[in-house]
Structures are given as C-alpha cells and as structure tokens.
Task: structure prediction
Amino acid sequence: LLAGVFVNHDMDAQAAPLLARSETLLDNAKDYESLERARLWLWQGVHEFHTLRPRRFEGSPLLRAVELSRRRYPNEDELEIALNVYIILAGETGHLPEAEQAADEQRSRAIARSPDNIYVAYADMNLASVLLKEHQYDQARTRAQ
Result:
C-alpha cells in the first residue's frame, strides 16, 4: 500500500523497490490468489502505466489484477480502482472495445454498490476521454453527460 502512495504521488523510483519486495514476499509464500496479490498487481500496473513507454496492454500486471479481483474479490474497491486504470490503459493502447466493456462493467458494479458511487463518474469520464482521443465526439459527449 505504501508503494501505491508513492505511485500516486509520482514517486515511482521509491515505489519500485517496495513493489519488488512485495512480489518476492508473496512469491515466497506461494500466494497467488490473495487480495494482497491483487493489490500488488494493481500497483505494479499503475507503476508501469506511469513509467513504461511505450505502454503495454497485453502482459500488464493490471490485467491480472482485474481478473483476480473479478474472480475472488468482486466487491472490493481494488476492482473498481483496477477497472478505472484499465479503461485508460486499454484506450491508450488501442484496445477501445476492451475500454468500453470495462467502463460498462465498472459503471454497473458501482451502481450496484451505490447509485451515487464516485466510480460511476470515473467510468463515464474515463471512457469519454478515450472516445475523444478516438475522435468519437458524439459518443464521448453522451458518456460524459
């Protein structure tokens, strides 16, 4: 979680050794299914998003975080956070259908938890941003309203 704080504050150099240490600890414990593993993959994915150029979609730890969270922790905030970043990553790497699907999923999950959940707005705004980059202005306007 401390690595996540560093990543969120653009202190990626400080986050990298913490992420590596966390991965080693979880690997040594043969822990591949815990919420902690999902968090690790989430923050590794966000860290990559901040630092890796060109960005990658396939093979991103973020995809593993989303898959594990969907399967084992569907009601945790980590899934909403992972989907939030997934939408942006998918859009920026040319995976528009995946971005749209993830935004719909995030929106549905957020509404199911609470109609005024902040992740409803995140899903719509992130997808609207992706659609704007794709020059799909009408769809972006509809999503952003």
